[in-house]
Write a structure and sequence with these properties.
With 232 residues, this protein is an alpha+beta fold. It contains 6 helices and 10 strands, in the order H-H-H-E-H-E-H-E-E-E-E-E-E-E-H-E. The longest helix has 17 residues. Belongs to the peptidase C40 family.
């Protein structure tokens, strides 16, 4: 399937980047520091490398929301599952780029579910999650619920679960960090999936077949790099 036309023109993507960059510095980059402070004990592990690669793409990937086969490699476009596939693919994991198929990705993490408390939602069972897990959210059509969104679990920040992935509201690129499950993100939570094997949270441990292959650099960009790209 060829990449679909993106929803933003180049000029629109640049304007969006400039409009929200200051907010990004005050929000996402603060959460990045919190992640690094909170999870120093797994620094350099495979799980940490996965999270750091997602952060790298957020900072240096200049991603615009869009769909299509290998859409990032071709045009710098990603949707939620393309982004997730891309990050894990840099470390030798072959997972689907179709969100609906994420109930087949890895294994289900038991004991994680949404609960409504005093009019707001919260995620129960976060003690069962590990950084680098994949969280999924449901949407509904005439056939019932299906997985309509996926993102990468970073860990607990500010006492709440945090995920990194595509989001369209108030970010300079297609990628941002969600750290509040009070409303849609809690109500629509579906399942947690684990792709990473045992040992992935141990610093210095090499997981055969999952060495860093380096990031993907697009052949062209809708949003041209606005700052020098710093390679990981």
């Amino acid at each position: 399937m060829a990449a679909h036309d993106n929803t933003l023109s180049r000029s629109e993507a640049i304007a969006k980047y400039k409009k929200y960059y200051d907010d990004y510095q005050r929000d996402e980059l603060v959460k990045v520091k919190q992640y690094r402070d909170n999870y120093q004990s797994m620094n350099g592990s495979l799980a940490d490398q996965i999270i750091e690669r997602a952060i790298w793409y957020m900072e240096n990937g200049y991603m615009v929301y869009g769909h299509g086969y290998k859409s990032y490699e071709k045009k710098g476009l990603v949707d939620c599952s393309e982004f997730t596939k891309l990050v894990y693919g840099d470390f030798g994991f072959k997972i689907s780029e179709v969100a609906r198929k994420y109930d087949e990705v890895g294994s289900k993490v038991s004991g994680v579910y949404p609960k409504k408390v005093n009019g707001k939602w919260k995620l129960e069972g976060t003690e069962n999650l590990r950084p680098g897990d994949i969280l999924t959210w449901w949407k509904k059509d005439n056939n019932g619920k299906y997985i309509g969104h996926v993102a990468i679990y970073m860990g607990m920040l500010n006492g709440e679960p945090a995920v990194i992935g595509t989001r369209g509201d108030g970010n300079p690129t297609a990628i941002g960090i969600v750290n509040n499950f009070d409303y849609w993100w809690g109500e629509h939570f579906f399942t947690a999936r684990r792709v990473l094997p045992d040992g992935s949270w141990t610093p210095g441990k090499t997981i055969t077949g999952h060495e860093d292959k380096g990031p993907v650099i697009p052949k062209s960009y809708v949003l041209p790099p606005q700052r020098p790209i710093v390679m990981p």
